[in-house]
Amino acid sequence: MTEWLRLDPSGAFVPAAGAATGEVVAVESWLVDGGRVRGLDRHADRFARGAAAAGLDPGDPWPAVPAALPATGRWFPRLELRAGAEPRLALRPAPDRAPTVVAWIADGPDPRRAGAGVAAQARGARRAGGRPMMTAGLATCPARALQSPRH
Predict the structure, then answer these.
(1) Is the pLDDT reported for residue 118 higher than 90?
(2) Structural domain of residue 130, as residue ranges?
(3) How far, CA to CA in Å, does 89 sit from each of 11, 17, 97, 134?
(4) What are phi and psi of 98, to 5 degrees?
(5) Closest alpha carbon to 115 in 57, 18, 28
(6) Band of pLDDT at residue 130, cut at 50, 70 and 90
(7) What CATH number does the domain containing 75 carry?
(8) How much is the average pLDDT of 34-39?
């Protein structure tokens, strides 16, 4: 089950009634495993670039993100910015790990850009038939598809 949070005036994420409405202009998702995250600063930079490309200033929600993340379990949070709304953070359980990966290589431009690239990524995912996508040797797919095989 997804729990939606909004950034309150004090700078902390608090429960929200649900996802905001409007066009998604910047979005970033990442894996949290046992309270650990890799490259959160890179996700923040990509989110900021996506918002700037859409001509929006989301403020700086990232200082509040670590405190909002669960300390235990596997999660796949999503920070999104929609036109005309404040940033929202979705706390979602991470998908189960898959024992193998099968990837489809996109034959078009790299769709892995936060914001305007969201629509391109969705089109590519439909063309890939739900399989993970790869462009320029880098994967863009559900977290479960990027896990290494279990040994």
Answers:
(1) no
(2) 104-146
(3) 13, 12, 23, 26
(4) -100, 145
(5) 28
(6) low
(7) 3.30.470.10
(8) 93
